[in-house]
Structure formats: structure tokens, C-alpha cells
Write a structure and sequence with these properties.
By secondary structure, the chain is an alpha+beta fold. It has one domain: Nuclear Transport Factor 2, Chain: A (Roll), CATH 3.10.450.40. Helix content is 20%, strand content 27%. Strands 7-8-9 form a three-stranded antiparallel β-sheet, covered by helices on one side. A two-stranded antiparallel ribbon has the order 1-2. Strand 1 and strand 2 form a beta hairpin. The longest helix has 17 residues. The N and C termini lie far apart (65 Å). 13% of the residues are buried.
Length: 152
Amino acid sequence: MANLFPESDDMIWSDATDPEVLEGDGAVFGRSWRYDFEAGEFIMTPTRKIPVADEKEAWVIWCEKAIRTPRYRHLIYTRDYGSELEELVGKGYDRALLESEIQRMVTETLLADARTESVDQFLFAWEGEACRFSCRITSVRDETEIIESVVI
């Protein structure tokens, strides 16, 4: 009877052949699909295909999604994924405290991923009760990007 799971010399079944690259800190850089957070949907090509994001863009997409996803709400994510920024809404704290908490929460959220080396250079802009912030993220590969978000 033929083997249900045939093996040959050209079939290597180990994690070492994974196309993702392992960095020194155990950070795995992979690919993702491009996403438009403003529209809330995947970006489509004219032929209705979703383009693939490169490793840096995939990491930036992960960072933005982690900030926007409430922690502990969705069972599919681990307890380390997501942010707790929602807890700040409507609390009536002064702006200095809110900015400090936003900085702490965003930093904790993004440093949960081994690909993120640092989060710094926070800038805050208040529009009434809404707080828009941006920060610089740096990967373990020394790639930097500025991300923006709205909190309250």
C-alpha cells in the first residue's frame, strides 16, 4: 500500500525551511496583506486581488492593528495582544495624565512583539475631546516608521 504521507529527499519537514527569517532576538519577520485602516478594509488591486505587504510594511500593519484592537475582547488573540486605550474614554482625566497613559499603553502594546525594538517620540494633538497622537517605532532591524492614531 502506498504511503499516505510520502517523503523524498526534496521534502524537508523542519521549521528551518520557513521563508520567514529569524533574527537574533527570535523576532520573526513575515509577510501580510496590505490594509487600509481609514477605510476599514483590505487594499485591492484593479484586478480585485489583495497585494502582499513586505516584511517592514507587515510589521507596521501589525503595530497599527495592535493599537486599534481592544485587549481581552477577542478570544482569538492572546492576552498580550491589543491595547487598553478604550479604558481611557470618558474618564475625565486631565490631558497630561491621558497623554502619559497613552504613551505607556502604546509602548507596552508594541513591545509585546519581538520585532519592535523601541517606541518613542510621541506627539499629541487635541481636537476638542479627541486626542490624535503619533509615535516613532523602531524594529530590531533598525527600521523606523511613524504611526498615527486617534484615541478619545
